[in-house]
Amino acid sequence: MRQYKLPFVLTALLVLAGCEPSKPQSAGQRPAPEVGYMTVSAQPYTVVNELPGRTTPYRVAEVRPQVTGILEQRLFEEGETVTAGQALYQIDDSLYQTALASAKAELASAEASLETARLKAERYERLIKTGAISQQELDEARSSLNAGQARVDASRAALETARINLNYTTITAPIDGRIGRSSVTAGALVTANQADALVTIRQLDPIYVDLTQSYSSLQTLRNAMAEGQLQTVGEDRAAVTLVHQDGTSYPQSGSLQFSEFAVDETTGSVTLRALFPNPDDSLLPGMFVRARLPQAERDEAILVPQKGIGREPNGQAIAMVVAADNTVEKRQVVAEKAVGDQWLIRDGLQVGDRLILEGLQKIRTGVSVRPVAVDGGQVADAVSEQGEQG
User: Fold this and answer.
1) Fewest CB within 10 angstroms: 28, 110, 136, 255, which?
2) What is the set of domains in the chain, with CATH numbers?
3) pLDDT tens digits, residue range 125-161?
4) Edge-to-edge strand order for the sheet containing 87-91?
């Protein structure tokens, strides 16, 4: 009976062996991973630096009295626009009117004395020829004439001083601009050249914006302007635009006016000053703004999506590209600055390179891949799905 069981068992084992599933393929036999890539291209681009800055009045005048007296009245409305020469305050001028009248009388007296001395000197000039007077008497007459002339000159100067002081009793605006809050009221005693200003006037149209930029970037800007690569406003002045804190753009464009002739020792930066029209006084002193300052215009700039650029542990920017034989190649690149969701690449990528954007987590340097072109840097859904299934 046992001799019949052995063939049966062998047959059963062979059948079971035939039903076992086939072993999986080795890793080397797997299909190459699929990646989405874009072809690197060049385009014209203006390199723009966005710098923080604050607005500064074009001119500032602190109004102070130049004579002493009691303030009679204020002649302006706080916050209004004033013009140069406009009356702002009136000081009691009674004493200055009296001083002017006294100076006029003193001048008249000096002129009368001068006339007497002149006639005497002329008479002595004639008499000296006849010997009726001595030379000493003639010299004294001439001296009296000169002294009289000096007194007249001094009286005229005193009269002019009195007239100027009287004019100073009306305090006027030295510049055009927006006037601020008055620090005094009628009835206050003000003194000549006092430390505290009566009021401050700020000229806001045009207005300055003070910016801070690194010295190296400033040199790049100067070189670009010297080579004619940038649009200028006027003579050798780069055009500048402003952006408010809420992201809105200021409608008026300005021009770069001045750069500090010293570099900050701690930051290595310099101060730039730009001038902007401000016809509606929408820019006020002390506002924080961001200025967009062009640095250079490039005819063949390379811009790539930020997701296509990675970083090494040491911070070095890298890009994974598809080589001619469809293998992965790692490139070290120089990402100059972020432009929206893109990087401006200064070095490391060339026109025509196939930059991998999708499937980066499944590849490494040197492996073969199946590249699939993407449209505008966006991978089709099918590519992602196929990659997940593979």
Assistant:
1) 28
2) 30-45+300-389 (2.40.420.20), 93-168 (1.10.287.470)
3) 999 888 888 899 989 999 999 999 999 999 999 999 9
4) 170-172, 87-91, 69-74, 189-190
